[in-house]
Amino acid sequence: MEFSVIKESTTSASRVCKIKVFGIEVETPVFMPVGTQGTIKSLSSEEVKELSNNIILSNTYHLYLRPTIDVIEESGGLHSFMNWDRLILTDSGGFQVFSLKDLAKVDEEGVQFKSHIDGSYHFFSPEKVVELQLKMGSNFIMPLDEPTEPQKSFEQTKQALERTHKWAERSLKFFKYFKSNIERKEIKFHKNKEFLERLREENYHFGIVQGGFFKELRKESVDFICSLDFDGFAIGGLSVGEEKEKTYEILNYSSAIMPKNKPRYLMGVGTPEDIVVAIENGIDMLDCVFPTRAGRRGLFFTSIGRINIRNKKYEKDFSKPDPNCDCYTCQNYSRAYIRHLIKSDELLGYRLVTIHNLYFFKKLMEDIRQSIKNDSFLALKKSVLDTFTKNTDNG
Q1: 223 is catalytic
Q2: What predicted TM-score, i.e. pTM, was given to this entire model?
Q3: Looking at 231, 284, 287, 322, which residue is catalytic?
Q4: Considering only CA atoms, which of 225, 106, 102, 212 is closest in space to residue 172?
């Protein structure tokens, strides 16, 4: 992996960087669409290529349970399985496991959990989740960590943090060992067989900073995780039910003391407002299910704010969803028609809103990168905040 800083803002911590892996370039700041189960729901991989910036995120927990890592490995890896010849970041599944609450039991060795699909029991250790991600051929691998909820005490958060740090050391040690010893399955059939067999060998490991909402613990975590030989660093454990002001406070504090020579990734945060605040604080990579998940419920992100297409006022509104957008959806379909589709639970409705929202986020990131290069980012940030905090359902 090559990582280089192209432009640093003179008015904020925002920056434009380039990540290059096996000839594939990702210019940051970048928003990564989430294909939890190896797909962005309702879209083909070819469509996602047009609506993303060469990288998507997928989820180890869900793919481990279904279709199973064995199936993916037998196909030659996740790239060939889902016909994706760009980069993939996979999270460890830790967040999903810990969100199961009563269905999960944690100790120093790892976490035992009960499948939400069939009730079967499984165990994730730090080594296991790295092994699973390497077998899938993920390009960016995340370690098992223990996020904590806002209501947890200092002592509870500290205990979880100590475990996260021990797991990080174990993950990194196993990653270096297993990466050089793994025997991968041949890709049975793919038009880019040779390229994908090489791409899946490009594996990099990111560390995760935790510490809940205690600055003392966040500093301890930054100091420890960033002292390890990870390829990049993530901020985890935010946007988990806390007040927005607290999210931004911890984000600002953590990112300010993280190294600048490697990518900085904010996990699971991705509304337009959150994105511009994160980037102002030097974040390079973001992901979130919200733009696509909310889109399937009929929520458009537009140049004039959020539009809930289910609202009755759009029943006879034959204008384009976003008056300033030239995506496929806005060029061809009206608000009234898409409202009808969403209200009728028609798959085409999900597709059309998803296409628009991903296009909107891709364009937003392009505008952000250009504004940083032009030293006009703070003006763009103000415009985004004005649009999305004041206008929740225009039209």
Answers
A1: no
A2: 0.97
A3: 287
A4: 225
